[in-house]
Structures are given as structure tokens and as C-alpha cells.
Amino acid sequence: MKILISNDDGVHAKGIHVLAEALKDIAEIIIVAPDRNRSGASNSLTLETPLRVNEIKPKVYSVQGTPTDCVHFALNELMKDDYPDLVVSGINHGANLGDDVLYSGTVAAAMEGHFLGVQAIAVSLVGKTNFDTAAKVVKELVIQHQNNPIPTNRLLNVNVPDVAQQPNIEITRLGARHHAEDMIKQLDPRGQQIYWLGPPGKEQDAGVGTDFYAIEHSRVSITPLQVDLTAHESLPSMKAWLER
């Protein structure tokens, strides 16, 4: 089995290397990741400048670009004649729950693999400590996929609680947050106004069945995601509205 690993925390981040170490005995691993932290990059592509790629050690590539750039380069150039069997993005340093998936570079990297025809998994640790736990969860999912392929063409968004013991797994839907808190205004050293994004909003929809609820109860959350954003149930009412 051949697995492409990427992330949004950068090629030197702890999470990506813990993941690669856990999977190397069941698959050939190729890492293609940003040269620095690109958290929050979402599905952005670099269009106005070329991508610079360096093989910093065998089968580990650093890309001056976004997470989506990394997977796009890997599948359309580096591995175009020998596609991987799976794309795994992570292990992210922090959660990707609810609305976070819209901004997440971790999810975007997996989504690009999905776009290009490869089953994909995004994995995040809801914390900064027990990366080994998250890596074991992913290894179990990969072995399960080898023996019995994931029965969906959706990409999987996996969030793992920051605990030492192997947690139970729950299939969930995305929860939702309240809108983000106010931006933080400051002055730079030259007296110019600058702005920082405020903290993310508190949980709004975090009931039973959501990814927030699973994590709150120390369970792994697996949410299947679809790329088609069309509100299909609204098509008839929109047609009727337009005809009026």
C-alpha cells in the first residue's frame, strides 16, 4: 500500500512525523507538506507564483505553497504515474470540528485528494500532547480500509481526543459554532492600526450525534464529508421563486 501524507502545520511539525512513523510498517509513505505553518489556508491554490519544491530527505518533500498545492503537486506531478492508495492529512495540532472544516488546511489537503480520485482522511488531535493516540487510531482505520474498503466516496474528517488511552469511535455529523468573537485591535511599533482575528465562537450545536459531543465525551469523531455544496432540496422552491 502507498500513502501520501500531507498537513497544514508544515513539513517539520510533530504530528505529521508521528503519523508517518506509525504507518511505515504497513505502507510505503511519501510526505509532501508545506515548508511552514499554513493553518487556515482552506482550499487555496497558489496561482501567481511558481511552486518551489525541495526533497529534504528521501520521500519527504517541502513545498513553498498551501496544503492544497502540496496534494495537487503530489498527485498531478510527483506521483502521477504511480498514484497512492490513500491520502492522509494530519495529524493536525488542534481540532477541526464543526465550522472549522470550512477554513481548515488539513481538511483541504484531504479534499484535494478526494477531488483527484483518491480516498482521503483528515485527522486532527484535539490538543497538543497525545499524538501517538491519534496515530494509532489512523493506523486502525487504514488497516480496516485495507481489509474492507471504506464504503463511501466521501472524505473522512477524524478528530481524536487528547487522551493517552485508546478511545472509542463514534460516527458523527458536524456541529456548529456561534460566530467568531470580536477582532483584536492593536498598534504596531510604528503606531499603525493592526487587527488580529478573534477567538472562534463557542459551540452552538453540540448535541448528541455531533463531533463536538463525541470529543466532549472523550470519543473519536469520524464525520464523512461531501464536496457538493448544492442545496438540492431547495432547487424546486428556487425555480418557483424565479418564475414569480
Provide a descriptive summary of the structure in words.
The protein is α/β, with parallel strands linked by helices. It has a single domain (2-176, 204-243), classed as Survival protein SurE-like phosphatase/nucleotidase (Stationary-phase Survival Protein Sure Homolog, Chain: A). Helix content is 27%, strand content 27%. It is built from six helices and 13 strands. It has helices at 14-23, 67-78, 105-115, 131-147, 211-216, 235-243, and strands at 2-6, 28-34, 53-57, 60-63, 86-93, 120-126, 155-161, 169-171, 176-177, 184-187, 193-196, 203-205, 220-225. It has a nine-stranded mixed β-sheet with strand order 3-4-2-1-5-6-7-13-8. It has a two-stranded antiparallel ribbon with strand order 9-12. The protein has a two-stranded antiparallel ribbon with strand order 10-11. A hairpin with a 5-residue loop joins β10 and β11 (193-196). α2 (67-78) packs parallel to α3. The longest helix is centred in the middle third of the chain and has 17 residues, at 131-147. It is globular, with a radius of gyration of 19 Å. It starts with a strand and ends with a helix. The model has no long low-confidence stretch (mean pLDDT 93).
